[in-house]
Each structure stands twice: as C-alpha cells, then as structure tokens.
Predict the 3D structure of the following.
Amino acid sequence: MQNRRGILFILSSPSGAGKSTLARSLMEWDNTLSFSVSATTRSARSGEIEGREYFFKTNKEFLMMVDKNEMLEHARVFGNYYGSPREPVETAIESGKDVIFDIDWQGGQQLKNSTLADDSVSIFILPPSLHELRQRLFSRGQDSLQVINDRMKKCYSEISHWAEYDYCLVNRDLETSLEEIKSILRAERLKRHRQLFLVDMVRDFDNERETIL
Ligand code: ADP
Ligand code: 5GP
C-alpha cells in the first residue's frame, strides 16, 4: 500500500501577491511536488511556454473540455476562462504525489465542495498592503497599465474570500512566507487521516507484541 494519498495544495491571492513565486520556490525545495498546469483562454505573456505556465486554448476548445468533464474546476477570471485539467491531478493524487494549484477563489471553492475536499488544503496569500500589491504588479513588468489597473480594481473581490481558506499568510518577506508554507506542507502531510499505512503498522505491532512480551 502506498504511504498516503497526495494532497491538493490550493494557493489563491489577488493577482501580484506572490503565489506563482511561492509555488516555484516550493517546487525547487521539493521536487516531488508537481504543478497543476491550467488551461486558459487568455493569450500568453512574453516568456510563457505552452504546457509549462498554461495550456492556451480558444474559447471553443476550452468549453469542449468542460463539456467532456475534463476539468476539475473552472471559472471566468478577468474576462477569460481558466480551468484545472482533471486527469493529471487524479493520477498524481492516487499515486501519493502532492499537487500545487494557483487558482482563484471560485476554483478553490469548487475543489473544496468536490469529492476531493478531504485531499485539499487551501492557503490564501495576502499582500502587506494594496500599495505594495500595485508595486509588485508593476515590478513584474508583464502587464500593461490598463491590465494592472483592471486587476487592482478587482483585487478586493478576491481578497474578500480570504476567510474561506484553511490557512492565510501575509507575504511580506519572501523567505519568511516560504518557510511558513513549508511548515503547512510538512504538518498537512503528517495528518493522521492521510497516513494510510498507520493502521496496518499498528496492527503489526499488536502481532509483534505477542512474540516479544
Ligand atoms: P501572483 O502569482 O500572485 O500574481 P507573482 O508571484 O507573479 O504574483 O508576484 C508578483 C511580483 O511580486 C513578482 O515580480 C515577484 O517577484 C514579486 N514578489 C513576490 N513576493 C514578493 C515579496 N515577498 N516581496 C517583494 N516582491 C515579491
Ligand atoms: P493570470 O492571468 O495572472 O495568470 O491569472 C489570473 C487569475 O486566474 C489568478 O488569480 C490565477 O490564480 C487564476 N487562475 C489560474 N488558473 C486557474 C484555474 O485553473 N482555475 C481558476 N479558477 N483560476 C485560475
């Protein structure tokens, strides 16, 4: 029997708070973690590679995937569709591998209301201030002023869902946030209900006890 089922680690935040940066750092720290590459109808930013950041789809292709039940969750965010393809996640979880999701609150809610709820751990990342959030969107240097303004206008509707998450952290200093997320991962992996092998192990202790006492 495998040691445990994999965990769905859901990261949500307003755009620019740092979830992609934290997800990347986590995967460098633990190379057994995989990333759920979403499908989206938005166009690729410079430097984004098909199949690495996203699977870029037309509206028709995306909606076809939804119709065929190929998405674990999907939502419309900033005027585009985004969704998490089902198959790679189910395969990973069943073979005991943890998967990181960078999705919005709508996707987080759908996963928490799905049959994978017990396998899901959600973390909301807050920026230290909205001023700093705006600075980070600028410093990322990938969006136009109009896109940044649009994301800032909508940031509060994402932030308003913070209390629905299992954990919440304020991403002031990147190293500190990374340590905090690692602590969450370590503790969640040790949750008793996830350690499927313990039942057999303790039963074996019972048999062994008879031979040594
Ligand atoms: P998101 O994925 O939430 O949209 P990103 O991870 O792309 O956000 O981060 C947005 C920008 O903020 C990036 O330029 C990133 O390097 C920077 N950033 C992330 N975390 C911090 C932090 N703790 N302090 C300063 N800058 C940060
Ligand atoms: P971006 O366009 O900046 O990459 O992402 C915009 C927003 O869409 C972010 O809040 C991101 O977390 C969210 N997002 C990315 N992929 C998915 C997904 O598969 N499902 C949902 N629900 N949201 C997603």
Notes: The helical segments are 19-29, 59-67, 86-94, 105-112, 130-140, 145-159, 174-189, 198-212. The chain has a mean pLDDT of 95.
